[in-house]
């Protein structure tokens, strides 16, 4: 079985000197009671460039169009046994659309024959880094830690 390839953009900003990142809560019934958050991202189309995937999926899930020139420092990380996610970082501020403008359809309740449409992300917002580290899916926490290391290196501090 080959690994699923996904890509996204972790947007960050400094609000009154405090580092914040943009995360969303997955939509749909399976995450209804989950408190975990995710980076706006999604699966690559066949033969699609991963940065193109990241730009497309971020726009679909957050409603924010990130200029490609702001995307830097890609990190690929295997988030679970079946998926590798590549994330770019962008110091970019915009207000997200919540819920996500992008939706998916699934049969719900299961085996009911009823097809229901759900937002890909039911909320999207800016989170301070300590909160983000606690709320993000554990497999994605490496992206937050890497962002901190990159920002420390840019500021001339040792990681």
Fold and architecture overview:
There is one protein chain. The chain is an alpha+beta fold. It has one domain (4-154): Nucleoside Triphosphate Pyrophosphohydrolase (Alpha-Beta Complex), CATH 3.90.79. It has helices at residues 50-62, 129-135, 141-154, and strands spanning 4-15, 18-26, 41-43, 72-80, 83-91, 103-107, 115-119, 121-128. The strands form two sheets. Strands 1, 2, 3, 4, 5 and 8 form a six-stranded mixed beta sheet that branches. It has a two-stranded antiparallel sheet with strand order 6-7. Strand 6 (103-107) and strand 7 form a beta hairpin. The chain is globular, with a radius of gyration of 16 Å. The N and C termini lie far apart (36 Å). The model has no long low-confidence stretch (mean pLDDT 94).
